[in-house]
Design brief:
Alpha-Beta Plaits, 2 domains, 7 helices
């Protein structure tokens, strides 16, 4: 923990740090630029937002409501044809689209139907999701490396 705090302080002071780690969440928290290395080759590098954009061009919003989403998901899908509506078992659903989803018309739909929205959150891929897509190395392999005490 002390080392991480020291790295964050050095970063704040503008010092360039080259950090190698198997802990993706550590890189996400500390680094401004990230490079993924697989089989000795740099597969991708860039800022966190650029790496995220490189693998995900879809937009997604998760809604948590007071009603079972299966009761209105078909009607929502019909109203917003350019979006894909995926229902969940816990009064939530995910709307995804290649284009930004306009929030106001969706909220208007919920209001018209008397559906209370408790949460509307944009979903973004994690850095681990990006790593898996760019390198083809499954996250289960990453977890096994950590359990074995992979180098830090």
């Amino acid at each position: 923990r002390q080392i991480r705090e020291m790295l964050v302080e050095l970063k704040r002071q503008g010092t360039t740090i080259f950090l190698t780690t198997h802990y993706i969440e550590e890189a996400e928290r500390i680094c401004d630029r990230i490079a993924f290395i697989a089989k000795g080759q740099i597969v991708a590098s860039g800022t966190l937002p650029k790496l995220m954009e490189s693998v995900s061009h879809d937009y997604a919003i998760r809604f948590v409501t007071d009603k079972n989403s299966e009761n209105f998901s078909v009607e929502l899908q019909n109203r917003f044809k350019t979006s894909k509506v995926t229902t969940r078992f816990d009064h939530s659903l995910i709307m995804s689209s290649e284009r930004r989803i306009p929030l106001f018309p969706v909220m208007e739909f919920f209001h018209e139907k008397g559906i209370e929205v408790y949460e509307a959150r944009e979903l973004r891929p994690s850095l681990e999701d990006v790593f898996v897509k760019l390198t083809g190395i499954e996250s289960s392999v990453l977890k096994k490396d950590k359990e074995k005490g992979g180098r830090r």
